[in-house]
Amino acid sequence: MNNKIMDIVIIAMFSSIVFVLEQALTILPNIQLTVLLFILYTKLLGFKKTLVIVIIHTLLDNLYMGTINPYVALPMLVAWSLIPLVITIFKKVKSKYFLIGFAFVFGFVYGWIMMVGAVLQFEINVYAYLVSDLPFEALMALSGAFSVLILYDPLYKFLIKQPYFENDAEKTTP
Question: Which pTM was predicted?
Answer without folding.
Answer: 0.93
